[in-house]
Write a structure and sequence with these properties.
Organism: Butyricimonas faecalis
Strand order of the largest sheet: 2-1-3-4
InterPro entries: Thioredoxin-like_sf, Thioredoxin_CS, Thioredoxin_domain, Thioredoxin_ResA/DsbE_sf
Protein name: Thioredoxin
Number of helices: 24
Structural class: alpha/beta
Helix content: 55-70%
Number of strands: 8
CATH topology of one domain: Glutaredoxin
CATH architecture of one domain: 3-Layer(aba) Sandwich
Radius of gyration: 26 Å
Shape: flat
Largest sheet: 4 strands, mixed
Keywords: Redox-active center, Signal
Low-confidence stretches: 1-18
CATH class of one domain: Alpha Beta
Length: about 475
């Protein structure tokens, strides 16, 4: 084959792409503390284990985010400690690690400055890290106030409430919140420093109802968007709980009616933006149809939710129910808007393929592989890179099992640093021309094309070893 050369291909390229998240140094705790001392930083420790699924999700969905990486890499020397290894066992005993994931911010002498147990969203994780860096809101500072029996300000007490939540001392956190709620004036409660006492609550709690009752005053202090989003999430959480519980009780229908009515009462302080009201009402209709086993109503409800860009939460749960219990007509109607979900809601090719597999599994008709192919060709033109075409059969369960192993974020980043890549289901009639043109006999099949669309390298069959796959890719890029 004609030889091609792609300049600048190296492992360094891969590392620089993935380094947008938290950069973990492969050093011991003692070395990290010494480096922190020399650089004037704190030490961030991600306590993890190879078998911990929540740890993996935190790494992929939070610690790999650019904004999280920018903050942590600037403030901390960052390391990961595996509790199943020798250093991890010692760390677990010394620092009292009882669950995973757990995160620590350590001072330069190794004492605990701040601690977090459990998973968080990126924005909540950053808020926790900021509190740990601050001199006046960290666990270390607040504990020192308590030990010295110094008087705490209202801000100190609210920060301590957050510390109790972060360290899973939930009973103590609830007790402190109750005291603060009773002892703090109305003018202070609606102020920003007290907002953590209310955030996260759902419909029915006294804190949620307090915000509803004094919505106008809260909006003046907190801003309209914060309060609207808080109310939407509170109502949605309670409605979605009914779907997860799967109990079509009179109480469940009464609750849906109460929330629907509450959003419709003239003059009551509620959500100010009409579109956000529509989101809650659409979920109320969807869950009501679910509890009534009204498949047709569920499909119509999902159509409205998709129009409102509400594809997350338990929409997959509802779609699975339609896939299992719906008839051919129901599934055909679902296919009318799954295309939009695939190309407007999925953020990456990996996520698109995930959507596509779910739609196929549920029996919803979707023909999108032609679009996958045309999008890939456009990316080749824009990025000025070669194209790796991965040809599979969507019903090949064995391939799909391997597929998820390759689709880890760091490996996807490595692949993206070298070329444009696209995975095509060759069972889709829309891409029959590819199957014929490339004369494919075995699956999966891989074709490396130059920017003019000429095949420069190809191979067929399963490659399970990560390094072997990378070697095959590099071999093709170098040209043979």
């Amino acid at each position: 084959m004609k030889r091609i050369i792609l300049l600048g291909i190296s492992l360094l390229t891969y590392c620089s792409v993935f380094a947008q998240g938290v950069k973990f140094d492969t050093i011991s705790l003692d070395q990290a503390l010494a480096r922190a001392q020399a650089e004037g930083k704190l030490v961030f420790v991600d306590v993890t284990a190879s078998w911990c699924e929540p740890c993996r999700l935190m790494f992929e969905e939070v610690l790999s985010k650019k904004e999280v990486g920018e903050f942590c890499n600037k403030q901390f020397v960052c390391i990961q400690i595996d509790i199943d290894k020798l250093e991890g066992k010692d760390f677990k005993k010394k620092y009292g690690v009882k669950s995973l994931p757990t995160f620590f911010i350590l001072q330069k002498d190794g004492t605990v400055r701040h601690r977090l147990q459990g998973s968080r969203r990126p924005e909540d994780f950053l808020a926790w890290a900021n509190r740990g860096v601050s001199e006046t809101s960290s666990l270390f500072f607040l504990n020192s106030l308590l030990e010295q029996k110094q008087k705490m300000s209202l801000q100190n007490r609210v920060d301590y409430y957050l510390v109790l939540q972060d360290t899973r001392k939930l009973h103590e956190a609830d007790s402190l919140r109750s005291v603060l709620f009773e002892q703090t004036s109305f003018e202070k409660l609606i102020d920003k420093e007290c907002w953590p006492l209310f955030s996260g609550d759902t419909y029915g709690s006294e804190y949620f109802e307090y915000v509803v009752k004094h919505g106008d005053k809260f909006r003046e202090k907190q801003g309209k968007d914060r309060i609207d989003d808080y109310l939407v999430q509170g109502y949605k959480h309670e409605i979605l709980r009914l779907m997860y519980d799967c109990q079509a009780s009179p109480e469940a229908f009464d609750l849906i009616e109460q929330i629907t009515t509450a959003l419709s009462v003239p003059g009551r302080t509620m959500i100010s933006e009409e579109d956000k009201v529509r989101v809650v009402l659409a979920w109320a209709k969807e869950v009501k149809a679910f509890l009534e086993n009204d498949i047709s109503g569920m499909v119509e409800g999902m159509r409205e939710l998709v129009e409102l860009n509400e594809w997350k939460d338990c929409l997959w749960y509802a779609m699975k129910y339609v896939g299992v219990n719906g008839n051919g007509e129901d599934k055909e109607r679902m296919g009318q808007f799954t295309f939009k979900m695939l190309f407007e809601f999925a953020n990456t090719p990996v996520e698109q393929w995930d959507f596509y597999q779910k739609f196929r599994f549920l029996g919803f008709p979707i023909s999108c592989n032609g679009k996958f192919w045309s999008n890939a060709l456009e990316q080749v033109r824009v990025k000025d890179k070669p194209l790796l075409l991965e040809c599979v059969r969507g019903n090949d369960a064995y391939f799909i099992a391997r597929n998820w192993a390759w689709d880890l974020p760091e490996r996807v980043s490595y692949l993206d640093s070298l070329c444009v890549s696209v995975r095509i289901d060759m069972d889709d009639p829309a891409v029959a021309f590819l199957k014929e043109g490339f004369e494919i006999t075995n699956y999966p099949a891989y074709f490396l094309l130059d920017k003019e669309g000429k095949v420069k390298y190809s191979w067929e069959g399963m490659i399970e070893e990560d390094q072997v796959f990378r070697d095959s890719l590099r071999k093709g890029l170098e040209g043979i």
